[in-house]
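Lab notebook, bench 4. The sequencing result for the construct came back, and we need a structural model before the next group meeting so we can plan mutations. Quick request posted to the team channel:

Model the 3D structure of this chain.
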Amino acid sequence: MSALGGAEKVAGTGARAPYFVLAHHRSGSNFLNDLLQAHPRIECINEPFSMHTGHFRECDLAPWSSADFDPELLHASLAGQEALRGYLIDFREYLCQSNSARVIGFKDTVLFGKLGWLKAFMPSLKIIFLRRDPRSIVSSLLDFWNYAELVRPAFEGMHPDYRSAAIDADRAIASAEMAAMSIVVRYELARRTLDAFEHRTLHLEALMRRPHECLEELAGFLGLEANDTQLSAQFSFLEARQAATRGGVFSSFRTPADVENRWKQHLQPPQVRVIEDVLRAADVEWTGESV
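Done. Here's the predicted structure in C-alpha cell form:
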C-alpha cells in the first residue's frame, strides 16, 4: 500500500478534511475533546499517538520534518516497527473517511515536534491549536510530569541566553520553571509549522467566556453549518460541565472562574515570577482573548 494513498480519499462530494486538536498537557484538551464529541456530527479520538503507542511518548520533542517522511517506512525510526506502521496507516485511512455526516479528528499532546512530518503524512489535515494561560497550565502540571531530560535541552537550544533563576531554588520554583519551559518549547514548535496547515487557534479562556461564538466558529472551520439544533447538544454539555467544580484534579467539571483563576490560589509568588521570566525570555505574549 502506498503511504500517500489514504490522504487522497478526502477529495470528493461530501468529504471533509480530518482535524487534529493540538494542545499542551493540562490545557483543557480532554474537555474540548468531549465537547466536540457532544456534537452529533463530530468524532474526536482521544490521544491515538500518545496513549496507544509508546514510541511517540519516548521521542516527544524530537523534531521530525517533512523531509523525514518516507513513503514506505513513514519515518526512519519506524524501520523495525511494522505493526506500528500498519497502525498509523490504518489510522490515517480511518480519518480520511471524514465527511459531512461525520467529521473525524483526534486530539493529542506529543506531536509538537512532528508537525512537519505530519503534514507530509496527512496533507489534508486541519489543526485546532488549543492554548491556555501558561500560569494555569503550570499550576496543573507541577505534580505530574518530569520534564528535565526532554525539555531543558530543547529550551536551551531555542533560548541559549536565558539564565535560570531557579538553579539554586527549592523544588517548587524549579518545577514551575521547567513546566514553563515546556510550554515555550511546544508553542514555539507550533508557531514554526502551523502555517503549513489550515488551522485555527482557540484559547480555552475565550471558550469559557464566549462559548456560543467559539463553537459556531469551530463548526464552520470543520465544514459544518452552525445549526442551532446540532449545537444545542454542545451547549447543554457545556452548561453541565460548567455548573460546578468537582471530581478532582483530572476532572473536566470546572466553573469558568475556576478554569481561569485556580492558579492564583495554587502558585506562590516566586513561582509566578519564574514563569514570567521564562515567558519574557522567549518573548511569549498572553492575552487569552483570541478565538
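The beta strands are 19-23, 42-46, 103-108, 126-131, 198-203.
Will bring this to the meeting.
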